[in-house]
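G., the chain you wanted modeled:
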Amino acid sequence: MKNLKLFVLALGLFTLNLSAANLNPIKATDELRSEMIELIGSNFMDEMLEDQYEANVLFTVNANKELIVLSVESDNDQLENYLKRRLNYKKVNHKPTKYGEIYLLPVKMIKQI
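Predicted structure as tokens:
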């Protein structure tokens, strides 16, 4: 009986892991992307040494039309923190077609010369 419980638990964790790995984020709409670009701003590049930085922002929009940042993938920790600080829990005018949709926004920041 103990082995059966352990097997069921392992099978459940395996299934959960597979379903989490199959997240297919959708691209943000042009309107949502524009609002996010305004929220991000350009202040970050004034302080940075390199001319270009890239990141992928994974987020969702809740029922209150607030951005919820799920993750930021970047080689630069400062950029990750900056994007989280500028976007997380900020209001937008986007109403998702269904709640819980996960969006992907690729961000490329280039220093203006």
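Residues 24-110 form one domain.

Shout if anything looks off.
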